[in-house]
């Protein structure tokens, strides 16, 4: 088995004074009936080497944890339709500019908090500060995904919420397979490390630098796992 490369991105990147390889691991379409250990055994163990770091993209972690909400179960109200009109589209998509996602945000955080976050988020933009809406809204709203079918039709009818207990997940997998694991939410405008095994503590900024150009991309490569490998001199 060979890893897949994103032809639009370089395999090698320099970060922290070292060169790193990013190998993309192609999988089947991950569903909530899958489990992490089977995925590691099937897709990662045939490729991995000592000292590699395995990155799970946030979306598949959420799906396996069944952090899914379906379009048919969401009633989009006035405020979701109204507030979503003022959200600017980014290279990563509309986010809460999608009325469905805005309604999910309201359901998670409550309307008063979303109104508060929307007002001050808009205000802070005049001072060149972006992303304040998500910081004030909380509730992992920045991690809401799905409700679009451009890459995979399955996502058009479902939304994906943020994963939970990512540190615990990574530590369990580290204990089981003696490998380093992290969960990352990375898109074309930025990213976050949502969890990592204990041996990676303090290396979150380095991991984000290695992943900064979003090597797995947002489209239909179906490569939700990245193996990071330090390139020997």
Report on this model:
The structure is a single chain. With 233 residues, this protein is of the alpha+beta class. It folds into two domains: 12-67 and 164-230, CofE-like (60s Ribosomal Protein L30, Chain: A, 2-Layer Sandwich); 69-160, no CATH class. 32% of the residues lie in helices and 20% in strands. The protein is built from eight helices and nine strands. The radius of gyration is 18 Å and the shape is globular. The model has no long low-confidence stretch (mean pLDDT 89).
Sum up the structure in keywords:
alpha+beta, 2 domains, 60s Ribosomal Protein L30, Chain: A, single chain
**CATH uppermost class of the largest domain:** Alpha Beta
CATH domain fold name of the largest domain: 60s Ribosomal Protein L30, Chain: A
- How widely separated are the two ends? 25 Å
Largest sheet: 6 strands, mixed
* C-alpha-based Rg, rounded: 18 Å
Weakly predicted, low-confidence segments: none
Classification by helices and strands: alpha+beta
What is the overall number of helices? 8
Overall average pLDDT: 89
Q: How much helix, percentage-wise, in residues?
A: 25-40%
Order of strands, main sheet, comes to: 1-2-9-3-7-8
Strand content: 15-25%
Element string (H = helix, E = strand): EEHEHEHHHHEEHEEHE
Count of domain modules: 2
In CATH, the homologous superfamily of the largest domain goes by the name CofE-like
Based on Cα principal axes, name the global outline: globular
Count of extended strands: 9
């Amino acid at each position: 088995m060979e890893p897949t490369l994103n032809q639009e991105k370089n395999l090698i990147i320099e970060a922290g004074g070292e060169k790193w390889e990013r190998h993309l691991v192609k999988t089947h379409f991950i569903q909530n009936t899958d489990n992490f250990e089977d995925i590691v055994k099937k897709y990662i163990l045939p490729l991995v080497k000592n000292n590699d770091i395995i990155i799970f993209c946030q979306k598949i972690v959420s799906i396996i944890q069944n952090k899914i909400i379906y379009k048919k179960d969401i009633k989009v109200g006035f405020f979701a339709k109204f507030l979503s009109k003022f959200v600017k589209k980014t290279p990563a998509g509309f986010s809460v500019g999608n009325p469905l996602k805005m309604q999910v945000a309201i359901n998670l955080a409550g309307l008063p908090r979303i109104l508060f976050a929307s007002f001050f988020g808009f205000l802070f933009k005049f001072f060149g500060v972006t992303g304040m809406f998500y910081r004030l809204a909380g509730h992992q709203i920045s991690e809401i995904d799905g409700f679009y079918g451009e890459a995979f039709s399955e996502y058009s009818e479902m939304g994906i919420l943020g994963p939970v207990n990512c540190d615990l997940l990574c530590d369990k997998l580290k204990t089981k397979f003696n490998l380093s694991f992290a969960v990352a939410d990375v898109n074309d405008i930025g990213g976050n490390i949502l969890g990592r095994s204990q041996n990676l503590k303090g290396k979150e900024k380095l991991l984000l630098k290695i992943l900064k150009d979003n090597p797995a991309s947002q489209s239909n490569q179906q490569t939700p796992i990245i193996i990071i490998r330090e390139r020997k001199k």
